[in-house]
Amino acid sequence: MAEERMDNLLYHPELHNETVVEKEIITYDVITEEDADEVARLYAEHLNSGDSVEEHVKEGIKSPDFIGFKAVCNGKIVGMLTGRGGVDFTYPHPELEERLSKYWEGKKVYTPDSVVVLKEYRHHNIFNELGARLVPTIYERGYEILLTELWIYPNGNVPAEATVRHWGELVHKEDIPMFYKDNEKYGIICPICGKTCTCGARIIIMDVDGDIKPEE
Prior knowledge:
Strand content: 25-35%
Order of helices and strands: EEEEHHEEHEHEHEE
CATH topology: Aminopeptidase
Number of helices: 5
Shape: globular
Distance between the termini: 24 Å
Helix content: 10-25%
């Protein structure tokens, strides 16, 4: 999953689908095909870019297996969390998929593929709020396994894991160096490394039951 990460927060649970940040209201809703252009733009600006990315993102939104949520402030998307059913790595890794398939045999798999929170809106709990909507939704749709592919930056940082690890019960975790070494072959440009990507990925497989797990 491609990801970006997210104080001064005034949060009112009674607002349900709203968060108040510095007197600005952030609302949360599902992503639809009407959001395709904006989602594709955010993906290319903040995550992977390249010739194939826009088409991949827009095709994904049209898929019946697509599930995504957005945070909106002043009419623009300031955060999003998206994904689709099945195994959906950044580009195909058939040998890895075959090796890992023992962890989800006979179960429906959902793969998050992006999280973006605009810089000026980070540290406002937006990622957590998006996850709190995504996890029960995928469970309601019959998904039992969450397969996440998290960037390992060249400095070793794994930005999204602190939030993602609460989305289910851990089944399997492994780090794969140079996971994106063939990005250029697929027309993908890493926002950190450029065309020749040296980032690794942390693969996390979890059983989901629709609940966010509390801090231990």
